[in-house]
Design a protein that fits this description.
Length: 335
Amino acid sequence: MSSPKDVHRTAPVPISSHANYRKEHSHSPMIENEPVLSSLKRHTCYDLLPVSHKVIVFDTSLLLKKALAALLQHGVQSAPLWDSAKQKFAGMLSVTDFINLIIYYYDHASYEAAIEEIEQLQISTLREFEIKLCLLSPICITIHPSDSLFDAAKLLMQNNLHRLPMLDTSEEGEIIVSVITQYKILKYLAANNNDEALMTKTLRELNIGTYTNLQVAYPNTPLIEILHMFISKKISAVPIVAEDLTVLDVYEKYDVLALARESTYSNLKMPVGEALLKRWPDFEGIHSCTLSDTLGDIMETMRRMPVHRFVVLENNKLIGLVSLSDILGFLLNTE
């Protein structure tokens, strides 16, 4: 592996021993998981809603800068959009939209032009820009409150989505009820799980996680390279490691919002280690596990606190990642 001083782009890291493990177990007998699947099919999306909750919705006429500030203020990565002119749901705004925008300006405009345009850009104009560059899917997938959690989970996994807007209808038109996420479904399962046999099995036994071609970066990796990695690899976080694969930190998509807060669009060549110093103090921290941890251990952690991924360690070195998609995909594929 190249030393940090030689690295200019996030680098895939093959972990040969665990790659062999996954290859040897790729045709393992299917694990019975009927209790979990039955729970997903029996309960509806409405069951995920707390007695009292809030939904952050942005009008498409809102300035993008204000919308991003609101995402930061409420600690969320996305929010539904509402077109007041048409009185209808207009899709989702996420950190990915902002990343697409700043990458475009980085490649095609001067810093002064980028600052001037981004500061005055409305969400509706951003959507037009993304459609023109084929960066936005023409179809926004939604779910109804009466649909099952199983249907919601399937839609999330089949379309590589982290969140799904929940819409209802009335005589007046569409109603934005909430947003279903992978984490909310898994937390619900963790709190209502009755499959003790499955929960006692380890990650090694269940073959959950990614252990080959991991995308990692070093503290001196330019930030722009990580932003490109988010988009091209369709990932939401990159572990920051030392030369010996000791995990130092994790740079997440959500951290990119710090660029909007400080208007530091011009300094995308800054080392990611410097960018992490701008992170808000409420960072959830790095959640780690080992191959000997059980699925029950993982689910219990998600029940107690917000978690978006686990770094898998062996002798305190990075060997893999377990994402929410890995866990939810495993639970669905055992049918």
